[in-house]
Structures are given as structure tokens and as C-alpha cells.
Design goal:
- 40% of the residues lie in helices and 21% in strands.
- By secondary structure, the protein is an alpha/beta fold.
- Helix 1 links the parallel strand 1 and strand 2 (30-36).
- Helix 1 runs parallel beside helix 2 (43-51).
- It starts with a strand and ends with a helix.
Length: 103
């Protein structure tokens, strides 16, 4: 139902918290798309090693957060798009409540 798009640029110390907050949602109908905006701090390697197939990792030349979000939208498989910054996180019921409001 939701394609969760997380732009990543030099947020290695925070991105795990962001991804974990999505994977631990009570509503589980989603995909996670992390868009690497040419990050240089090792965050991409961390995402690959820790999450593997749990996330779709896309790479692009550094073009900024807006282009990264649009890159994620282009690859999204679900009808609803949810943006999450790599240094932010969600309450575990966030997608549940978003789905509730949509319904």
C-alpha cells in the first residue's frame, strides 16, 4: 500500500533508526526505498550490510533531496508515497493511522 522513500546523504549515524522505525510498523503493507544521493560517509554500506533485501537501494549522482525523492517515486510499486528523512523516525503506528485516514 505504501512506498516509503528515504533519501540518504551522509546520515550514517541516523539511517538505521529511520529504517528500523519503518520495519517495526504495526501496519506492514509497505516497501522501503532508500535513495543514495552520492553519500560519502559509509551509510550506503551500512544499509546494504544491515538490511539487504529488506530495502530497495537506489543510487544517483548528488542532486539533492528533491531529486532523490522523485527518483524514489519513479521506482515506487505502491499507490501511496510516504517520505521519511534519513535522520528522522516514525512512531510504530504511523502507517496504521495513515491507512486509517485513507480508508
Amino acid at each position: 500500500m505504501f512506498s516509503v522513500i528515504i533519501p540518504l546523504y551522509n546520515k550514517k549515524h541516523y539511517v538505521s533508526r529511520a529504517i528500523d522505525s519503518v520495519l517495526n510498523q504495526t501496519f506492514q503493507d509497505f516497501e522501503v526505498i532508500v535513495v543514495n544521493d552520492e553519500s560519502t560517509d559509509g551509510g550506503v554500506e551500512l544499509v546494504k550490510e544491515k538490511y539487504g533485501e529488506q530495502v530497495h537501494l537506489l543510487n544517483q549522482k548528488n542532486q539533492g533531496v528533491s531529486v532523490a525523492r522523485n527518483t524514489g517515486i519513479e521506482q515506487a510499486q505502491f499507490p501511496y508515497i510516504a517520505f521519511l528523512d534519513a535522520d528522522d523516525y516514525w512512531h510504530s503506528d504511523f502507517l496504521f493511522w495513515m491507512n486509517s485516514r485513507i480508508q
